[in-house]
Amino acid sequence: MRQKSKPFILFIKIIAIVFLLLWIITPLYWVLVTSLHLGQDTFSIPPKLFPTQPQWGNYLMAVKEKPVLNWIGNSLIVSIMTSILSLIISIYAAYALSRFNFKGRHFVGFSILFTQMLPGTLFIIPMYLIFKYFQLLDSLLGLIIAYTSFGIPLCTWMLKSYFDSIPMEIEEAAYIDGCSFTKTLYRIILPISKPGLAATGIYSLILGWNEFMFARTFINSQARWPITVGLSSFTSEYSVEWNVLMAAAVMCSIPILIIYLVLQRSFIQGMTSGAIKG
Amino acid sequence: MKFKSKLYPAFLLTPAILVLAVVVLLPTLQAFLLSFQSWDFLRDSKPTFIWFQNYIQMLQDESFWGAFGRTFIYTIGSVLGIVGFGLLSALLLNISFPLRGVFRGVFLMPWVLPYAVAALAWSWLYDYQFGLINFVLNTLLKIPPLLWLGSSNIALLALMIVSIWKELPFAAIMLLASLQSIPLDLYEAGAIDGAGAWKSFWHITLPGVLGVLSIVTLLEFIWAFKQFPLIYIMTGGGPAQATETLVIQTYKQAFVNFNLGYASTIGVVTLLVSSIFAMIYFKLLNRMER
Question: Going by DSSP bridges, is the β-strand pair B37-38/B48-49 parallel, antiparallel, or unpaired?
């Protein structure tokens, strides 16, 4: 870490950091404030920076007007299942790519990156037809299957980077002691891979929670929407009750934010460990 | 690591490859096939082969080229902002201060939130009459209110700003981690040799973060190129196609006009374009590493 000797430059830096933080936080703060505004305060000029009387009733209104709690439940189910399945599949694939030297290793790695590049609009059309045939449309299971496969490429890549940073001596010693591959993986590698696993797990959780296009295209019934589709349905109305909408938005963001904030340290550590090792 | 069984890695990789092949790659191949067919989903029960007619139609379509240009403007503008300001932010944050963990947690929140939430939040911020942005611009800089999402000249810019807001934390955190892995001795040695701030940045800092910088740039490029929720929710491609990117156009052709064949054609071309760009990018990187 660089030590700056000139206090003036440090002062400028701190001011810049404050501005940066303001820029990042203001939209979030504004969502929160609007969610607590009275109807008339929402549309006041100049905008009121603090709610005059916090209207927690907005939250009840949001739940009454639309099945917001259903949406949150749907998103939870889909994202948690996606996370678990992605993790399981990616752990094996990442371990193979990290530890074994076989022909076509780079090809597999590259094709995994290639799938990241595919625009969703390319394969959503045939996928729609396939899912229609298997009656997976309008179902959370369909979304779970789709999201799990979307998550595999980057999850595998993240875990592989993480496994690469674990020296192989421990495994080789275990192998000499007669440990099988799977035992080595479960007993030795996984316990010390917690940051990598947390990062990958949260990443696919976020992926499942935030996805929009496939959910919107595949799910028709309002009650089965995840939160992303549900929230966006507010804007189709002519006059938008922004305060109630923001209340819904806050409710829909809380679960993922809580999970993120709790596991944040492991997540960032896992994400950036690849960055540090190059 | 030398293990006797060569089948084992294949065994471990099978679930991943199977899932990807069936759920993603198979439909992608089908999409390629569809791009050579004509299928009006509402009228025809089956697609018909029309070979390259879709591609010819697309190349002659003005709105395709419009979407093509817009996609590049949006993508390159966003990536420059995200990576450029991200690097600046990382350099700024590369000092020790208390509560760093808390700061980082809050800092990443825009990136963690769904694009749907960001789209709604910023739609409200951009509101012509009651939005916070027009209010601040008016009171602080005496700028008259702008119709951010409703005017064809600035709608795309408005979207790019949101894109930067959302993705900058990710880029900044990754670059910050990379910055902190550069050994201090290098800077000390540079200072002894008389290197000023700019020289030490150019010869020590930049090479040190180049690896992460290139990966982050590539990822952000791919993600911006494919962007859907932000544009769809905030403008729907409007006003009057002013923000219609290739992805939005593909979606509209498929699920509004039900031209499944033609939509697939645009989709294929979208993939080809981003792949070509990625390849050029890698070639440039290799050349830079000299």
Answer: antiparallel
Q: How many Cβ contacts (< 8 angstroms) between chains A and B?
A: 283
Among chain B residues, the shortest Cα distance to A120 is held by B226
pLDDT, chain B, mean: 88
B37 phi, psi to nearest 5 deg: -120, 165
Q: Which of A263-267, B76-80, B125-129, B150-154 has the lowest mean pLDDT?
A: A263-267
The reply to whether residue A16 touches residue B225, judged by beta carbons under 8 angstroms, is: no
Show the 3-state SS of A247-272.
HHHHHHHHHHHHHHHHCHHHHHHHHH
The CA distance from B73 to the nearest CA of chain A, in Å, is 17
- Please check the confidence at residue B290 and state whether its pLDDT lies above 70: no
Please provide residue B6's backbone torsions phi and psi, each rounded to the nearest 5 degrees: -90, -10
How does DSSP assign B202-215, residue by residue? Answer: IIIIHHHHHHHHHH
Place of tokens 């939509």: B263
**Could you please report the per-residue DSSP string of B225-268?**
HT--HHHHHHTTT-STTTT--HHHHHHHHHHTS-BHHHHHHHHH
Q: Do A24 and B169 touch (CB under 8 A)?
A: yes
ipTM of the complex: 0.86
Are B237 and B249 contacting, i.e. CB atoms less than 8 angstroms apart?
Answer: yes
pLDDT in tens, B48-77: 888 888 899 999 999 999 999 999 999 999
H or E stretch covering B126: none
Task: Give me the residues of chain A with pLDDT under 70, please.
Answer: 1-5, 102-105, 109, 236-239, 273-278
What amino acid is encoded at B244 in this protein?
E
Cβ burial, residue A184 (10 Å; 0-12/13-18/19+): buried
Is the predicted pLDDT of residue B210 greater than 60, yes or no? yes
Confidence of residue B6 (pLDDT cuts 50, 70, 90): low
User: What is the CA angle B62-B63-B65, rounded to 5?
Assistant: 70
User: Phi, psi at residue B60, to the nearest 5°?
Assistant: -95, -5
Three-state DSSP at B49 gives strand
